[in-house]
Amino acid sequence: MKIALAQTNPKIGDLNSNTQKIIANIEKAKEENIDLVIFPELSITGYSPFDLLDFESFVQDNLTCLDEIRAHTNGIGVIVGFVDFNENPQGKKYRNSAAFIYNGEIVTKYNKMLLPYYDVFHETRYFEPGDEICVIDFAGKKIGLTICEDLWNDKTSFERQKYLTNPIEKVMQHKPDFVVNLSASPYILNKEKKRHKITRKLSEKYSVPFIYVNQVGANDDLIFDGSSFVMGKDGEIKANCRDFEEDFITYDTSKQKGDIHPITECIEGKIIKAVKIGLQDYCKKLGFKKVILGLSGGIDSALTAYFAKEALGAENVLCITMPSKYSSSGSVKDSEDLARNIGVELKNISIKPMFDVFKQELGDEVLSGLAEENLQARLRANILMSYSNKYGYLLLSTGNKSELAVGYCTIYGDMSGGINLISDLPKTLVYKVSRYINKDKEIIPWNIIEKAPSAELRPDQKDQDSLPEYEVLDDIIEDYVVKNKSPKEIYEKYDKQTVDDVISKITKAEYKRRQATLGLKLTSKAFGSGRKIPISQGYSLASLVQKV
User: Fold this and answer.
1) Is CATH 3.10.100.10 the classification given to domain 2-263?
2) Fewest C-beta atoms under 10 Å: which of 14, 25, 71, 240?
3) Is 532 considered catalytic here?
4) Active site annotation includes 112
């Protein structure tokens, strides 16, 4: 049997466009004499439609699209993801489903059994889980059909299983020739290795190949890397799609081999590709043509400008440097050097005259200390938003994960924007990616990378005046925010005062993060849709420390 893996990039809710993309891939498969073509999870609606599912008309329209797809399946088998109604009068109204279509008929449907409910996933809010497995007889083969999370509950990979049932175990009782998995698995660092590890263990355990077809592209804060693949029963990759772009590959079951397309191997390269498609799709799907950002002469805005140029082209990026009386001449020069290196337009607009007016009107009684520092950030935000409003450019926020964690940022100032490309990159990783970009030649000026980071909001200011070294800070953030370690556990690595200060800052900054701009998710625990910490809560550092 010849099988095609159609790795598509849907726009959530754009049912007609998504359907035409599916049909185009079906026609291509016919031209190549393919027997079966497989699409990702919820490929008609895009993942995840969230509260669009509150509109019954939306679900009805997606079923109409399924009928349109049916008309193009003469002589070819098609497996496609869609939203179906729950046929039972009890439970959630809808199902996360897959349809196997052949010769214009829906031969069978499968309802996803395991619905993820953690991190960025909210499927139990909308869908009723299926309770029956699906094994298809087609072209002399028995095909086990699963959807995404159905793979992620086998005891070979998970010491603690999240669900009471194991669909793979049940499918294997029917001795399938191979198992198909439709997926919409968001990208995080090293995610593709985890997918390979899980399917490798399953394929070796049951001596059965797995065909994994994943969505690609970006929708809001979630990035999907694609990286679809066929895992042979010997635990070896037999075919794979490219990462971070649409692709179409074929696999021959009799020869047990297929197309091997190149993928990015190193972490830095994957981050660059992930952010690139994240911004490209955000702009394309929302209709933005150009972006604007402030260049401070620091590494965060420099890396953001580089990402923007890579995603949209230098001609679609406007940078503005906005020096104050505290800005060093070196920062302005570094911004000019960066803009020249990446070929983007740079404007220089001093905020000093505006700041002086505020100072004169409000006086030292109001404008001193932190208020004076933050005013500078807010003046810059007003300049950037004025250009954004006038010309329709998307404003990029430029704060990294380390700063966002401890609130080392100004609400309604440098936190302003339509999207943040690096809000899930710790400062240490920002440096690592920047050095990688310079591996062949200087693109981000080395002076930006090597100088001590500073907000330059007061004389001789340095980040480390207020924060520990970034290697220490990022490690504490990783332990506390990502690994959920208690302060007592972290005391074993760092002194109590440092740990307490960092965790106190993280707790106090929750209200800021709740108002932060949307940020691309790149790690296993991002600030945003996947982290639900109350702003007003009593499980504070103080209560924890008292128990130590």
Assistant:
1) no
2) 71
3) no
4) yes
